[in-house]
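Residues pack. Consider this:
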Amino acid sequence: MSHIHIPDGVLPWWLWVPGWLLALVLVFVAGRAAERHEVRRKVPLLAVVSALMLVAMSSEVVPIAYHINLTVVAGVLLGPALSVIAAFIVQVVLAMLGHGGVTVLGLNTLVISTEMVVGWALFRVLVAALSRRRVRWAAAIATVITLAISTTMLVGIVALAGGGAAAARDSGALDPASMTFANPFSGGIVHVGLFSGGEHPSTPPAHNSVARFAAIVYTLGSIGWVLEALVTAWILGYLARVRPGLLWDGALATHEHRIPGDEAGVG
């Protein structure tokens, strides 16, 4: 939901140019930071997680026009530095496939990086507060809070752009005029559109105000947050049960001494 599906030529230059510059600086800093954390050993994990995010963001839950992101899962597995690099890689590929213009690539990188880093931080704090036996709860809560924050960033970007064409988006089964739901399954349940060019606005840009855009994304987004929270909780709970070392000895590892080969964990 927080991925910006806006074509080139819509956002003002004073908005997307700083977005590009900030994203490049962030990627540079993340790259320098990652060099100190055995980045070569984590390249396969970075590649796999980036590919999973790419597929997830290309798959739409049609009734609510929502794209599962897997950003919290990716952030937990990669940590903050590699998360920024993964976000940039994914956004470059999506931009080349038409899921948003090249001009919004920087802003998209900032938003998705925020999702991943905030998700990683919240999950870490919640696990410490709830214990590792509440992995699924920690994952679900972290996901909902993270997506609420990133969706608010999206609304803020559209507000800065002044609405209009920037506020045009697919609303799925939700009628943006009456804010009521039609048959939620008339267009199917899941649509995979890797080469579809992203979302297509369901209403003319001239009628899309920032307030209406916010109402649409928060209404549909809240449903999507719950769905993604369930998916994230299941994935991280499963990893905590079958591959705890991948979860706890990676981006969530502390400086405590751990016995090599100790894979004991709980889910």
